[in-house]
Design brief:
70 residues; alpha+beta; 21% helix; elongated; binds zinc ion
């Protein structure tokens, strides 16, 4: 007896959606995250979405100044 599987994908990439983050804005570059989220981070109990890993890294260097500049 043979079982056939339908292989979906080798690497299932996690897709972030705007509903998963607390702010609808990429604080590092100012882009609305509804355009697509590549990475997220948690900071002081909130979830932030970013369009790119570079944006997250920038934000995490000095999160307070980004939040203040809002
Ligand atoms: Zn960005």
């Amino acid at each position: 007896m043979t079982t056939t599987y339908t292989k979906i994908s080798d690497s299932v990439k996690v897709k972030f959606t705007a509903s998963m983050v607390d702010y609808k804005k990429d604080f590092a570059c100012g882009m609305p995250v509804t355009a697509g989220i590549e990475d997220t981070c948690h900071y002081k109990g909130k979830v932030y979405g970013f369009c790119a890993k570079e944006c997250k890294d920038e934000f995490l260097k000095k999160p307070e100044s980004y939040l203040k500049a809002k």
